Amino acid sequence: MKLAKRLTDLGTETAFAVSDAAAAWAAQGHKVYPFHLGDIDLPTPSNIVEAQCRAIENGKTGYAPGAGIPQLREMIASDVGARRGIAYAMENVAVQPGGKPVVTKFIQSVMNPGDEVLYPNPGYPIYESQIEYHGGIARPYRFVEGSTGFQIDMDYLVASITPRTRVLIYNNQQNPLGTESSHAEMERLAEIAIRHDLIVLSDEAYFEIRYAGGSESIASIPGMQERTVILYTFSKKYAMTGWRLGAAVGPKDVIQAIARLNTNDESCTAHFVQWAGVEALSGSQDGPAQILKVLEERRDLAVEILQSIDGVSLHKPDTTFYLFPNVTRVMENMGFSDVADFATAALKNTCVSFCTRKHFGRPQPGEREHYIRLAYSGISAENIREGLGRLKAWSDRF
């Protein structure tokens, strides 16, 4: 059977490929320490689970409105707006089966074939995949590492803008870097978007996964709300990755277009899952607070061990549940020149599984440093200590 030619432009979330390798190694009887996938091994708060069960018992098992049930749309509008200091109404929200569909439907709604889209690289690989699959031109912008973390290379970004550039994708609490913009950097990015009349997707999946300080949204900067769609998800804060519940929040015309795509793609987000979302936003917040506490403890432990490894350097992030250490020196010490070979050898020698920079967009010309990404959301503190201890002991032999 002949498949559609456009499938050659469709990428994947490459962390799942690492999962396959880890699963194959585990199937041979090895205990694997899984730092590769940004899933959460903590339970969804019980009040949310109970709300879904009640919804099923109450017959909320049929179709729901394509844009989402009004009760959930209103709550998302209120919560997202209040946390960002701006006003949204129900009409500014389209509920989705997860955060990821927002990327696809946003691109389908605002990008024409041949339009250029600026996107972060390293970054979530689905950006690059969906831009190219839908006929756009993917224009990566890069980051530079400074003394306090990673910053957007603004000169590089501006130099990438042409008359065909229409869209900017921005992920502030950033996957995989675990970094975020300063207020000044965000203002500069907003100024660029306004000056060049760019439509913005602000991926804010990790907006509330933070251990110090407060998150900001580019939509809150004057002139940006009317040109920005926020990607919102329940997956991280509420440990609901498998529930598939999220939303697009933004200008009414784009939200209406996304809602039409909902009707064409999946009809609606599962009705009873939406009622679980209502409970998540309106009920006790003790569960999310406990999730955040556990994640912070894991972060602190992982950073402490990684910083003790000779040749590894990393910044301690205040947000997300990712670490992005520079492993260039330790690779040189151990005789590795390719980070993929280093990752494979680490799995075989220590059973520690992680992604590399190469899993987050095509590396750009001139990149010389090597990085890996470790997610600590799906691994216990005990296994973090054990697994990273093995990684340190292995590197210490060289």
Helix count, DSSP H or I runs of 4 or more residues? 13
What's the shape? globular
Q: Give the second-level CATH assignment, the architecture of the largest domain.
A: 3-Layer(aba) Sandwich
Mind telling me the CATH class of the largest domain?
Answer: Alpha Beta
Largest sheet: 7 strands, mixed
How far the N terminus sits from the C terminus, by CA atoms, comes to 51 Å
List the secondary-structure elements in sequence, H or E.
HEHHEHEHEEEHEHEEEHHHEHHEEEH
Share of β-strand residues: 5-15%
Domains (count): 2
Q: Structural class from helices and strands? A: alpha/beta
Q: In what order do the strands lie side by side in the largest sheet?
A: 2-10-9-8-7-3-4
Q: Rg to the nearest angstrom?
A: 21 Å
The CATH topology of the largest domain is Aspartate Aminotransferase, domain 2
Strands, total number = 14
Q: Give the uncertain stretches in residue-range form.
A: none
| CATH homology superfamily of the largest domain | Type I PLP-dependent aspartate aminotransferase-like (Major domain)
